[in-house]
Amino acid sequence: MEDAWIEKALDYLVRRAAGTFIWATTVANFLRMDPRGRFDILQARNNTEGLDELQSLYSTIVRESFGGVIEEEILGVTCIIGAIIFARQPLDDDALIMLPGVKTRTSHIMRLIRKGFMSIIDSGPILHFHHRSFEDFLLSSSFLQALPSLSGIQDRNFHEHQLASMCLNCMVSSELHFNMWNLESSNIKDVDIPTTDKSAISPLISYLSLFWVDHLVQNQCEEISMNAVKFIMHEKLLFWIEVMSILGKAHEVSAILKRALEWPGLAVCL
Questions:
Q1: Does pTM surpass 0.85?
Q2: Inter-residue contact 163 to 210 (CB < 8 Å)
Q3: Domain definitions of the chain by residue range
Q4: Each residue of 174-207: pLDDT tens digit?
Q5: Per-residue buried b or exposed e for 57-95, using 16+ beta carbons within 10 Å of the residue's own CB
Q6: Facing residues of 129 across strands?
Q7: How far apart are the C-alpha atoms of 105 and 29, rounded to whole Å?
Q8: For labeling, which of 80, 116, 150, 186 is most exposed (least CB within 10 Å)?
Q9: CA distances (Å), origin 50, targets 41, 56, 59, 63
């Protein structure tokens, strides 16, 4: 009986995969948790939405994983998935929980996303989709039909604001401080500067140092950012430049500050 079910399942899955490697690997990961139960789900949904096979599979995964998400979880899930899409580089959990919209039951939200997207994200500390096609699906009208409650995932302006706020809030905090390299002396002759050692800089500080201006100029809420930017420009600018130097990106400082001039509120902050 078991062999007959497996043979039936393999025949069905091989025909639907149609030689598409990403479909085969994704469905294999999806079935791993509960092979028979999830296979029944796949059969029941058997592409009744007019989608291609890969998008139909993605739609099934999203509905199965987040169809029952409750209202208080929606904003956290939306913020984190949106950040995965719109961040300039992949972010780790320490950065994602700094997003203003991730306020309640943070560890629960992260577990919910990792479990729900287990078949389409890497299992390491960085939330990263296996394939660009899933990101394209999240930004498509098909995703809105599958899970309209998470339509905010597609709101780029909202996510640029979230990422800008994350960067600015961290920069004005003690995370960005004097002597980021923890040198024992201010006399350059007295210390051996490890020019290739960037371990003193956390991934979060590295990210915001490189991309805070990118998110700032996309931010439509000037009044929220004004005080933070003013504080950074007057109190934290040299600390940021130090980080850029440690990262080997000091040559980009001038270009980044010139780009900051695109933000209408900068003149008020200087």
A1: no
A2: no
A3: 1-154, 157-269
A4: 999 888 877 664 444 444 555 545 667 888 999 9
A5: bbbbbbebbbeebeeebbbbbbbbbbbbbbbeebbeeeb
A6: 121
A7: 27
A8: 186
A9: 17, 8, 11, 16
